[in-house]
């Protein structure tokens, strides 16, 4: 039996499944592959006869779903600070210049920018504290 370290993890070079995949998996896949052509012909024939389930199955596999896209819009963005930018976006939504889903995406983007700024400021503060601590120790 394989051994684990004190944390319960497998030791390097050890496997939780030393036997690997069972041969059954490969056998099942081979059988499915043998019958794939016949199944494809049957589904196509059913679709040609008007079977909507067969049509849906074919379309789901062949035609990728259409992703919604938004037209580019222009509006006044007050970028002096993040709250001002958020208010500008809300005004554009309220004024009909910007669709609500676009406004939501932009507000979420501002939130991400705020988190990036916050992390940068925290990193700077930690570095300043380290420098102060090093200065006090000398």
Please characterize this protein's 3D structure.
With 138 residues, this protein is mostly helical. It has four helices and no strands. The mean pLDDT is 86. Among the domains are: 23-62, no CATH class; 82-137, no CATH class.
Task: Please sum up the structure shown.
The chain is an all-alpha fold. The chain has helices at residues 23-48, 52-62, 82-94, 100-137.
Keyword list:
138 residues; mainly alpha; 4 helices; flat
How would a crystallographer describe the biggest sheet? none
Roughly how many Å is the radius of gyration? Answer: 30 Å
Task: Briefly note the structural class of the backbone.
Answer: mainly alpha
Q: Strand-and-helix sequence, N→C?
A: HHHH
Low-confidence spans: none
Strand content: under 5%
Give the number of DSSP strands.
Answer: 0
What is the arithmetic mean of pLDDT?
86
Q: How far apart are the first and last residues' alpha carbons, in Å? A: 55 Å
Number of helices: 4
**Which word captures the global form?**
flat
> Into which percent range does the helicity of residues fall?
55-70%
Write the layout of secondary structure elements.
Blueprint: H1 23-48, H2 52-62, H3 82-94, H4 100-137
Helix pairs in contact: 1-2, 3-4
